[in-house]
Amino acid sequence: MVGTKASTKAPPSLLYMIKQVELVVRSHLDELLKPAGITALQYTSLTVLERHDGLSAAQLARDSFVTAQSVADVVRALENRGLVRRERNPRNRRELLILLTESGRDLLARHAEPVRELEERMIRDLTAHQADQFRLALSKAWHALS
Amino acid sequence: MVGTKASTKAPPSLLYMIKQVELVVRSHLDELLKPAGITALQYTSLTVLERHDGLSAAQLARDSFVTAQSVADVVRALENRGLVRRERNPRNRRELLILLTESGRDLLARHAEPVRELEERMIRDLTAHQADQFRLALSKAWHALS
DNA sequence: TTCAATCAACAGGATTCCTGTTGGTTCGCA
DNA sequence: TGCGAACCAACAGGAATCCTGTTGATTGAA
């Protein structure tokens, strides 16, 4: 992070620091996931589906502050790799539900531990209480802008 | 953030929460910057140059955990818009220094206040102390992964 | 001087994101 | 009942962001 070191100027903004942390996380995730042939964004989408299997692309888009079209690009990539499949919602024929496949669940299981270790490394210099406060601050920041 | 509400499942990971906050920040920034015709990423690059005018693309790349080639794409866009110019480093003829133009400084000045308001809105539900701790946690997280 | 490291640039391609449009589905309301 | 508003997926097309691999120039150190 340029500007971290001693300087007479103002500290970097919180907005900038969040971006920098997200950036370094993504670079580690991409490295971790390279053997699996998927990007950090694709992996993140899979973890969302792990929590909420059977979301529609429109729901996923609203959650992600991007357009449905952008989500469709990611979902198509995941579908081509056989990690998700799509199925018409029987209760609402407009919607196509996105569902994890066995292969998708396998991929998530294979990477759960390395990703957990990455997160532990990120907060290794925080106490348990500080980590809780960090989580709380992120949650409040997200709510304030949503 | 899907999964924020009551659920029997585990809470979303910190890695995920960071991404979500960065995402919602970027969407607000993009909205803010749309009239200026630049993206959130391009604006962020400009603010880095505001702090450290005359960086080389290679330095910028190392700071951003992306390749020099990716940085070059952003810099080219900024150069085409007349917001930065490039100039051979007289002390090291390999390097091309990236410098803000008057137009670039104007753009930064025009948007400083709205961006500051966005950041204030983000932390409106945090006390001053909590905001400081938030900043500290982000800094420690960044260092732990760099 | 020679060799490794560094830097910018080019080619080429994948991914992520957008706007705008079309057509099908659902739902409320006249 | 039917009709319009809202919603959903998909297509076309394009911009922005990222990558690998390569080339050539410059630098600095052995």
From TrEMBL, chains A, B:
UniProt xrefs under PROSITE patterns: HTH_MARR_2 (PS50995)
Protein keywords: DNA-binding, Transcription, Transcription regulation
Keyword DNA-binding assigned: yes
Record domain HTH marR-type: where: 11-143
Signal sequence annotation: none
InterPro entries: HTH_MarR-typ, WH-like_DNA-bd_sf, WH_DNA-bd_sf
Keyword Transcription regulation set for record: yes
GO MF term (any one): DNA-binding transcription factor activity
The organism's place on the tree of life at top rank: Bacteria
Name this polypeptide is given: MarR family transcriptional regulator
